[in-house]
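Q: Here's a chain of 357 amino acids. Please give me its 3D structure as tokens.
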Amino acid sequence: MPPALVAASAATVAWLIAADVIGHPDPVFAPSVALIVLGESRGRQLRQTTELVLGVAAGVLIAELTVFALGPGVIALFTVLLFTIGPMIAAGASNTLVVQAGLSALYLVVVAAPQGQLVPFRFADALIGGAVAIAASQLTAARRPLAPLVATARRTYAELAGLLTDLNEALSACDEDAAHAVLDRAHQLSDGVDRLRSPLLAAAETYRLRVRKGRRLRQLRNVEQTTHQLDHVAGNVWMLARNVVTVTRLHTETPPDLGRAIEALSRAVREAGESLAVDLTGGGDPDHHAGRADADALEAVRIAGKLLEDDPSPTLTIVIGQIRTTAVDLLRGVGPDDDAVLSRVDEAFGWSPDRVS
């Protein structure tokens, strides 16, 4: 209900301002742009949202000028759609924004073409709707600035942990098709990690405007470092998935303990995500979850190290090594990134210092 209430209120306020203040008899673009911008502004910085509003308003103005110059018709329709959709696609706008902008341009040409003299009511309506949407989004962000970041972090870590679990099931069943399906999902992991950066930047921008901000900004800097390490974890899991595809393709026999190691790694990822979320929300003890993530990651490494002592096949050796590398990067994101992480992982793996390069 809260997002629906914000959207409905913003659209209504935009309509009232355009109708009563500007005096436009049919200010449909004001609530339309308000809804478009609200839908696209979640997790964005204020500068990005402002650019979005100006881009939509400029598209409306170009459409108005084109229709006024050419008149309604097929040529005007093609020209307006081309100059509205083309720049948005080139700028990397989302599919939703491209479709909404195209529909707005279509409405302007077919239904509400300017008659007689050009009065840029719709351009003003677009600016009004965008300004109302910015105000609504900033008020919402001011109440719960960390909510989008926490939700995105939990979803990203859950996807990563779920992928490891599914990878383990494909390995246990020696199912090459299932392993390929997991590998395809692993290709999208980096996109999932990138999703964290937008709400992170937006939250940091909100807190910089506050007086009491020191602790939160330190937390957000820690999240930024964690996100950097999570990007490495995602790359390692992708490599792990590639190696599992090779194992299943060659029908290499795998010991049950290998599955236990991957499942322990999956639990470590879930606990790491919960530690980050709890630290931001203050709803529990983040150190408790960080400790469990640490213990599960080291357990995965310990099991993998014992398997290495049994002189496995070359393909399994690569999988075991990738488990160790993934654990290292995960632990560097959970706690301090220092030499102690490598020392503890090497000790769990069964490596003496003289064997570590």
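Q: Can you summarize the key feature?
A: The CA atoms of residues 87 and 93 lie 9 Å apart.
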